[in-house]
Design goal:
By secondary structure, the chain is an all-alpha fold. It contains 23 helices and 5 strands.
Length: 548
């Protein structure tokens, strides 16, 4: 007898029989397919290191080995993503940063794949539809975002948080409150802000469809004594708290930092209206992003209305999962609209009524959850409406697979800007890597370096501490204020020293070294210097500020 395709695909020699049976299950086939799409997209979209990977993995490496890049201002700051550092930082003791990031991408995207599978299969029972919805999301995210949020590219703590959040949405929609609470708690541990916003959205979905949710089979008959239900909901809250505490404690420790009101206000202002204004200030978002997301919201509304009409013609009820996801999305819209109203102004920020309170609330990223959930749920709901309005046949299924393969191939081959996270030309990027390599091999391990503003992945490649880096901004108020002070010190030194005679003299560079502890300065446009560089190439020069 000819073996089945499932048996053939898992009959590789060396695999235990039990493992072959597990891999032959459709659920595992689907998970591996979704995971493969995500990994391929990640590696094609963002070469290692991705845009924020030096930020996260250097912090993780330093947490496990404080002697590495000792003296770096950013690495020694607070650790709001401690669970991420604990999860992946130990790998840096055995592997390079590149290998560590690759392993972290694989594991994180496996969680995202599982979350997508559990969430999407509520409305999309077939793998090809789940994959099509995923590819539509990825294409949508490659074209537009609202506040700079993304899911698949490099890896950071929010990727795991979103993966667990998707899993929780799918689990909560089946009435499994305890399991959903544990998943949302885990999401909060990896990224407190993303986890808390997701928790609120899931609670909103439950409230939106409460009558149906409370009568789901997994919830029991819907009748019982009040103490029993109080114990059950108390267990849900307890599970969420226990799983979220590893992430909440460092975050709360940072928020409750004992600093003066003046320092706290300054830190909030610098974060919202200077360093992260492209994420936090709605007045900075281009109009076309508002238009694009309004268009996507309109498409969701059209799908919802058409879906209701379709199920009515078929004498069926709207699927519970559909109602639940609409509720989740509505809460994210409410949060984002609140954020827009908080940031809406017609003059300077400080002229807004209740400015201090509004400033404090804006720093909690009120747009990020809507930024991601709208394209996520649009992709799923659009495919679910297509399935409901046009029952599948074998011919249509083949066309669907061709469409899926075509969209995926087009997405993988399209020119993603994030592929070059350095934002440097090929020749300048190569010169930067040569500069980092020279510093790593020719300077003492404890040397403190000052780099140009666009110092991409300096600690990753040079393995040396930086005095201050524009991108590597701490998140606690005192750290943000100190970060700003260091940037202003360098700017004032550069302007005043150059204004004297248009040359940076040896005395002036020695003064900078004595005031800051900087041993080497990397310059691209800054200059000229009276002293010769100890290293130079086409684009960069390295100066030793402490001449022995």
């Amino acid at each position: 007898m000819k073996p089945s395709s499932a048996e053939t695909s898992t009959s590789a020699p060396g695999l235990p029989a039990r493992l072959r049976k597990v891999l032959a299950r459709p659920e595992w086939t689907g998970l591996c397919t979704l995971w493969g799409i995500l990994v391929a997209w990640s590696l094609a979209r963002a070469f290692i290191p991705g845009v924020n990977e030096p930020h996260y993995f250097c912090k993780a490496k330093y947490w496990w080995n404080p002697e590495w890049c000792a003296g770096d201002f950013f690495l020694a700051s607070s650790n709001p993503h401690l669970v991420f550092y604990l999860t992946f930082g130990w790998l840096t003791r055995f592997f390079s940063l590149e290998i560590t990031a690759f392993i972290a991408r694989l594991l994180s995207l496996l969680v995202v794949a599982r979350g997508w599978q559990v969430m999407s299969r509520l409305l999309l029972p077939r793998l090809d539809l789940q994959a099509l919805a995923l590819v539509l999301l990825l294409l949508c995210q490659s074209l537009v975002n609202f506040s700079g949020e993304w899911l698949v590219g490099g890896v950071e703590s929010k990727v795991l948080a979103y993966g667990l959040g998707f899993w929780a949405i799918g689990t909560a929609a089946t009435g499994k409150g305890i399991q959903a609470a544990c998943l949302l708690g885990g999401a909060t541990s990896f990224h407190p802000l993303v986890g808390i916003w997701l928790t609120l959205c899931v609670l909103g979905g439950v409230a939106w469809s409460w009558r149906d949710w409370s009568s789901l089979p997994s919830r029991g008959s819907g009748q019982g004594s009040s103490p029993r239900y109080l114990r059950q909901y108390g267990g849900i809250v307890t599970c969420w708290l226990l799983w979220s505490l590893p992430g909440l404690i460092p975050a709360l420790w940072m928020l409750l930092e004992p600093v003066s009101p003046r320092t706290r206000f300054a830190g909030d202002y610098l974060q919202v209206y200077y360093r992260l204004k492209h994420h936090l200030d709605p007045m900075e978002f281009p109009w076309w992003r508002y238009a694009a997301y309004a268009g996507m919201g309109l498409l969701v509304w059209v799908c919802h209305i058409r879906m209701k009409q379709t199920v009515q013609r078929q004498s069926r009820e709207l699927p519970f999962a559909w109602k639940f996801m609409i509720g989740v999305l509505l809460i994210s819209v409410l949060i984002a609209v609140t954020g827009v109203l908080l940031g809406l102004r017609f003059g300077l920020p400080e002229q807004m009524p209740a400015f201090t309170l509004r400033l404090k609330l804006l720093k909690f990223y009120p747009f990020r959850i809507f930024d991601l959930l709208l394209p996520v749920l649009l992709s799923i709901l659009a495919c679910a409406y297509g399935l409901a309005s046009s029952p599948s046949s074998e011919t249509r299924a083949k066309k669907l697979r061709v469409l899926l393969a075509s969209l995926l191939l087009a997405g993988l081959l399209s020119p993603f800007p994030a592929r070059n996270s350095s934002r440097l030309s090929d020749s300048k990027r190569q010169a930067w890597l040569e500069t980092c390599d020279w510093i790593r091999t020719h300077t003492p391990p404890d040397a403190l370096i000052q780099t140009p503003r666009l110092a991409w992945g300096f600690k990753w490649f040079a393995e040396r501490a930086e005095y201050v880096n524009y991108k590597d901004c701490p998140q606690e108020s005192s750290g943000i204020v100190e970060w700003n002070r260091r940037l202003l010190l360098l700017r004032e030194w550069g302007q005043s020293s150059h204004a004297n005679d248009q040359v940076y003299s040896r005395e002036e560079t020695a003064d900078l070294a004595s005031r800051t502890g900087i041993a080497y300065l990397v310059a691209d446009r800054l200059g000229p210097f009276a002293q010769p560089p100890v290293f130079r190439n086409q684009y960069y020069r390295v100066y030793a500020l402490r001449e022995e």
